[in-house]
Design goal:
By secondary structure, the chain is mainly alpha-helical. Helices cover 68% and strands 10% of the residues.
Length: 138
């Protein structure tokens, strides 16, 4: 999915489930880090890297550092760990739906094969994120 889709879905999901605006902001930062550090360019193609797109290894490369940073602002280690784990797995879930797949222990795992830029799928998950944001606020 597109980065905006990841951001809106994770922000809504984290704010709705935690009630913490700080955690939601750091969930957005986690989405950007996963996408910026998690893609390699080879022979004109962009590929996901197992460094940030592996369901197990990403707990060390993404969740651990983001939890430490988030805990500084949120002040609650358990809440921060939950929020960053949710941010990671929401990202991996959306990427699992696409044709690029994700990794489990560096082994590629296929999903539904939806093109990452498919407008209907991206719009639906953006709207779901917005709905979760509104539900969290009210």
């Amino acid at each position: 999915m597109r980065l905006l889709t990841h951001i809106m879905f994770a922000m809504g999901l984290v704010l709705y489930t935690t009630g913490s605006a700080y955690a939601a902001v750091f969930a957005v930062l986690a989405q950007v880090i996963i996408d910026v550090l998690g893609h390699t360019h080879s022979h004109g193609y962009v590929r996901r890297s197992w460094v940030t797109h592996d369901a197990i290894l990403s707990l060390l490369t993404v969740v651990l550092p983001m939890t430490l940073l988030t805990t500084y602002y949120v002040g609650n280690l358990l809440l921060s760990t939950y929020a960053m784990t949710l941010a990671l797995y929401s990202h991996l879930f959306l990427d699992w739906l696409t044709e690029g797949c994700i990794f489990i222990m560096r082994k590629r795992v296929g999903g539904l094969g939806i093109p990452y830029n498919q407008p209907v799928a991206n719009t639906l998950f953006i709207l779901l994120g917005i709905l979760l944001l509104f539900m969290a606020i009210h």
